[in-house]
Structure formats: structure tokens, C-alpha cells
Write a structure and sequence with these properties.
Flavocytochrome C3, Chain A, domain 1, eight-stranded mixed sheet, six-stranded mixed sheet, 30% helix, binds flavin-adenine dinucleotide, oxidoreductase activity, flavoprotein
Length: 494
């Protein structure tokens, strides 16, 4: 394979396909290189629920993104607002003010226009009624700033983006792994690829790398995230092994961001080593704010109700990995089982049920039964039952006097049947990556842009530190992908 294009894009997830569409829109000829076979293509983007975070001022903005909303839906739903200020506050708060302000500004300020742009490329969006809203007095109320998902989830998103690329003449090469970058006089001019064992070169006046982080590489995980991370399960694609980051570093790119940090969640304890597209994100277990989590010693170790799920789930995977045996159990009683997300009702769960707390304690595999019973009793006695329970706001119904408090949505566990679910740590993506500028152009260690090289998506460093507001990964990929593709096309013409 010896071909030349204006822009070559590495990867075929959300960031890559947005970059390809943005480059094509500017008149560039575009090739997309995807190392996975077509049936496994689309990276982590395909594993998502398609939930995507953006700033909106109310229903008028939402109607630009979802013109198909019915009168009925509008009447029966309180969509609220999620302003740019709210988005900024969330980014700064969860990253403990580490996020790069310039990159965050791009992310937040371009979020809404990027949604409208994606729609113009044929994507459809719908409200996330199932996961981000609760019905209060007959009306759905959204909470936590995350309101919209791609139609058909991650599968639908990748399919629509792929179709959109194909109808616009963008060529996608599957089973084509980028292995290195080609440079001439300091400028990137192409990519070395391996296709079914054969190595060749693809020329590009500019290259966009959007090949994800290094979450699927056990050796890099252990090296950068720390000992024990080789034991985490990978939630998504097995193909994100840090190739793009490595190739860029090899030609002098500057590493940037939270290299020891990652997004990791509570994930089915017996899930396979990598994600399974048939289950998607069903292995996650995100309803812990309505119950408690205990480790093998029978102890609680996080504040399950510290904040809305969207703002704690991405950092609690690390807490679970740090427990003895790298596992924990989530426990609920019958008062809240109707609030549990769909993922609790899939076949592939490690679940036990019991009619008394004593019986439940005896059924939790690998857990000290006496200790967990003591924890349950102590927790039950500490719940401030005088404060009303309300899942749509931070209700302040917490515990009093516990070493590990629960700050919101605390309920006495007293109504059988009791249910418990075994979880371990599932890694989603890594936070460290490459340094880019306002054009998403990769910066070298002398802080100069590398001619012809752009990056987008998970592999951009400096955006997320320690934690992450749910739904921001897809938005970041779309914003930086679109920026990178447009800038690469402009560079490719000179
Ligand atoms: C189970 C799960 C659920 C999630 N849910 C959500 C959600 O609802 N909302 C949200 O915003 N985020 C979610 N995320 C995070 C989200 O998936 C990522 O932030 C986002 O999809 C990253 O997009 P990307 O394009 O950078 O990477 P990816 O979509 O992972 O794409 C990377 C691509 O690069 C390819 N590639 C890798 N190496 C090479 C190589 N050497 N040569 C060629 N190609 C290569 C891969 O095959 C892949 O196609 C979820 C993640 C997982 C795993």
C-alpha cells in the first residue's frame, strides 16, 4: 500500500472520525487507519452509552441538538440548564484545579457548537431518560449536567460517524496498524503501517493521531499508573495500547498531563480481561450512591454519597483496586432496588440475595461475615433519617459519627430482600498523553509545534486529572477531533 492523502488519521473512534469529517469538510482527501478488524473497530467510543456532556442554556439549545423532541417530552420533562459556568466549575472542581485552562476553555466553549456540528454530519441525539433522570411528581427531572446521548449508544454513534465518513468519500482501512511516523526536514509526512503482516507507508501532508490512551497495555499501566494496575480489568477496546503516544514521543513530542492518573470504575468482578461488545458498559455498577460498598474486611472505604454519581464514579475504581484482593461488594435493600440502573439486571452479574442481613453477610464471598454485619449495624444506626430522601438533588441525608461518612442518599438497610453485587476495578482510559496547542497541534519538548502532527481524544494530556465529569470523554474527542481535522486540512494544503 503506497498512497498519498492530504490528511491521514490514526484510529477510528469518535475523535478520529470527527477529525476525518472536519478535514474532509475543508476539502482534504482523507484516509483513516484502524488497527482493529471492522467488527471490533470504533475503539472505546463504541463501548460507551453515548452519553455526551455539553453546555446548554435551556430547551431552545436542546432543540438545536434534538429537533425531534416531542411536545409530550418537552411538557413532561424538566431538562434544567447546564451553563458554560457549570461546565467550567465541574472541570475545575473534579480535577482539583489542575486542568489546563486553555484546553478546558476549548472543551467547554466549543461543546455546544460541536454538538450542532455533529448533528449536521448525520448524528442523532436523544435525552438519557433511563440513567440521568428520575420521575418526580409525574415529571422527569434531569440531574448532574448530563442530559443527552447518541441515538443507539456507542454503537449507534460509531456507525453514524462511519457512514458519514464513507458517504463523503473518506477511505477507512481496517486491520491497518500505524507503527511509526515518517518525517522529512522535521515535518511529519506520513505513517508507517502494518496490514496483515506487511509493512508499507502512507503519505499524508498532515497526520492526526487519535488512537486512544494506554489503558489496554498492562505493562504501561503498571509502569505509569503504578503497581497493581496490571490487575485491573479493561472496560473497553483491547486496541488502545499507547501506540500513538509512543510514536509521537519517539519524534520528540512533549508528554503532558496526569500520567499516573486514569478513569476507572466499579466493574463486575468476574468480567473478562477486556471489554465485550455484546455487554458494552453493562459490567459497570454505578448505583452505589443508593447503597453501601464494603471490602473483604467488611469495612466501608469511600463516601458512596459524596456527590452525584457523575462526579465520583471515575475515581472510585482506583479505591477498589487499592482494597485487599482488589474487590468489593455493593449492598442495597428493597427500598432502592427500583432506582438501580439497567446494568444490575443483566445476566453476567455476581449477585447474592438474602432475606436478613445475617444471611446476606454469610453469602458475601471472600468477606469477613462478622465484620460486615458490624459495619451494617453501625451504618444503619448512623443514618440521619429525619432528612427526606431525594435522588434528584444532593439531599444531605447523611450519616453521623462514622469514620467514613456517607454524605447524601443514606438509607437504613432494613427492607428485605437485600441484594449485593461483587465488583472490581475496571479501567476506562488513561489521562496522560501529549501536549497540544489551540489547533490541537502536537508540541515538542522545546515547546514548538511539530509541523504536520495533530492529536485528539484520550491521548491529549492536560485535560483530566484525578477525576472526570461523566460524558466528557466523547465531548473532548469531538471538540479536539474537529479542531485537529480542520487544522490538519489547512496545513495539508500549503
Ligand atoms: C465501557 C465504557 C463506557 C464509556 N461511556 C462513556 C460515555 O457514556 N460517555 C463518554 O463521554 N465517554 C464514555 N467512555 C469514555 C470514552 O469511550 C472515551 O473517552 C472516548 O471514546 C475516547 O475516544 P477516542 O476517539 O479518543 O478513543 P477510541 O474511541 O478508543 O478510539 C481509538 C482508536 O484508535 C485505534 N488504534 C489504537 N492504536 C492504533 C494503531 N496503532 N493504529 C491504528 N489504529 C489504532 C483503536 O482501534 C480505536 O479505533 C466510556 C468508555 C468505556 C470503555
Amino acid at each position: 500500500m503506497h498512497r498519498n492523502y492530504d490528511v491521514v488519521v490514526i484510529g477510528a473512534g469518535n475523535a478520529a472520525l470527527c477529525a476525518a469529517l472536519a478535514a474532509q469538510e475543508k476539502g482534504a482527501s482523507v484516509a483513516v487507519l484502524e488497527c482493529a478488524p471492522q467488527e471490533e473497530s470504533g475503539g472505546n467510543s463504541r463501548f460507551t452509552a453515548g452519553a455526551i456532556r455539553f453546555a446548554y442554556r435551556g430547551i431552545e439549545d436542546l432543540l438545536q441538538v434534538m429537533p425531534d423532541l416531542s411536545e409530550e417530552e418537552i411538557k413532561n420533562t424538566d431538562f434544567g440548564v447546564y451553563t458554560e459556568e457549570n461546565f467550567f466549575d465541574d472541570m475545575f472542581r473534579v480535577t482539583r484545579f489542575r486542568t489546563d485552562p486553555n484546553l478546558t476553555e476549548m472543551l467547554v466553549k466549543r461543546s455546544f457548537e460541536t454538538m450542532v456540528w455533529m448533528r449536521s454530519k448525520g448524528l442523532r441525539f436523544v435525552p438519557i431518560y433511563g440513567r440521568q433522570a428520575f420521575k418526580i411528581d409525574g415529571k422527569f427531572k434531569f440531574w448532574g449536567g448530563l442530559t443527552v446521548e447518541a441515538w443507539g449508544g456507542g454503537e449507534g454513534l460509531v456507525e453514524a460517524l462511519t457512514e458519514s465518513c464513507k458517504t463523503r468519500g473518506i477511505e477507512i482501512f481496517y486491520e491497518t496498524r500505524a507503527t511509526g511516523l515518517i518525517q522529512q526536514d522535521g515535518a511529519v509526512t506520513g505513517v508507517i503501517v502494518k496490514h496483515r503482516g506487511k509493512t508499507s507507508e502512507i503519505g499524508g501532508r498532515a497526520v492526526v493521531i487519535a488512537s486512544g490512551g494506554f489503558e489496554s497495555n498492562a505493562e504501561w499501566r503498571t509502569r505509569y499508573l503504578g503497581p497493581g494496575w496490571e490487575l485491573a480489568k479493561v472496560r473497553g477496546t483491547r486496541f488502545n495500547t499507547g501506540d500513538g503516544i509512543r510514536m509521537a514521543l519517539e519524534i520528540g513530542a512533549s508528554p503532558y498531563g496526569n500520567w499516573s492518573g486514569c478513569h476507572a470504575v466499579g466493574w463486575e468482578r468476574n468480567a473478562p480481561e477486556f471489554g465485550d461488545l455484546a455487554v458494552g458498559d453493562g459490567f459497570q455498577k454505578h448505583s452505589y450512591p443508593f447503597g453501601i460498598i464494603v471490602n473483604g474486611a467488611g469495612k466501608r472505604f469511600v463516601d458512596e454519597g459524596a456527590d452525584f454519581r457523575n462526579y465520583t464514579y471515575a475515581k472510585y475504581g482506583r479505591e477498589i483496586l487499592n482494597q485487599p484482593g482488589q474487590f468489593a461488594w455493593q449492598i442495597f435493600d428493597a427500598k432502592v432496588t427500583h432506582l438501580l440502573r439497567d446494568e444490575y439486571r443483566i445476566r453476567q452479574v455476581t449477585k447474592v440475595s438474602a432475606n436478613t442481613l445475617e444471611e446476606l453477610a454469610g453469602k458475601l464471598e471472600d468477606v469477613d461475615a462478622e465484620a460486615v454485619l458490624a459495619t451494617l449495624k453501625e451504618y444503619n444506626a448512623a443514618v440521619q433519617t429525619g432528612v427526606p430522601f431525594n435522588p434528584t438533588v444532593k439531599d444531605g441525608r447523611g450519616t453521623k459519627g462514622l469514620a467514613v461518612p456517607k454524605s447524601n442518599w443514606a438509607n437504613v438497610l432494613d427492607t428485605p430482600p437485600f441484594e449485593a453485587y461483587a465488583i472490581t476495578c475496571g479501567i476506562t482510559f488513561t489521562f496522560g498523553g501529549l501536549r497540544v496547542d489551540a489547533n490541537a497541534q502536537v508540541i515538542d519538548s522545546d515547546m514548538r509545534p511539530i509541523p504536520g502532527l495533530y492529536a485528539a481524544g484520550e491521548m491529549v494530556g492536560g485535560i483530566f486529572y484525578f477525576n472526570y465529569p461523566g460524558g466528557t470523554g466523547l465531548m473532548s474527542g469531538a471538540v479536539f477531533g474537529r479542531t485537529a481535522g480542520g487544522a490538519a486540512a489547512a496545513a495539508g494544503k500549503t
